[in-house]
Design goal:
Helix content is 0%, strand content 38%. It has strands at residues 5-9, 19-23, 26-33, 36-41, 56-57, 60-62, 69-71, 88-89, 91-94, 97-100. A hairpin with a 6-residue loop joins β6 and β7 (69-71). The structure holds FE2/S2 (inorganic) cluster (FES). Residues 5-100 form the Rieske domain.
Length: 110
């Protein structure tokens, strides 16, 4: 069973500009980049910092506090100080709206 919920309109997303939303109590950063839309848990795995306040580049979102960047497809950090991935979630676009399933993490642990 999937539990997609509406996050925002596709037209509300500017390229490489994360948008923070709260879905079923989970903070999520929705990112449009390179023609795709991704959804990643909005809190860094290193400390309680909002990833949506960071920069997006090369399909990664960078934590502004210490600089770890997380892959928007896998949730994996590219380098220290973060060592653990951040959950990433399935996205679907329907009728011009973006839907995210925060109950089905796509994160790869290793
Ligand atoms: S809080 Fe994100 S890398 Fe330290």
């Amino acid at each position: 069973m999937t539990t997609f919920v509406r996050a925002c309109e596709l037209g509300e997303l500017d390229e490489d500009t994360p948008r923070r939303v709260e879905l079923d109590g989970t903070p999520v950063s929705v990112v449009r980049t390179g023609g795709e839309v991704y959804a990643i848990h909005d809190i860094c795995s290193h400390a309680n910092v909002s990833l949506s306040e960071g920069e997006v580049e090369d399909c990664q979102i960078e934590c502004w506090l210490h600089g770890s960047a997380f892959d928007l497809r896998t949730g994996k950090p590219s380098g220290l100080p973060a060592t653990r991935p951040v959950p990433v979630y399935p996205v679907k676009i329907e009728g011009g709206s973006v839907f995210v399933d925060v109950h089905a993490s796509l994160t790869q642990e290793s």
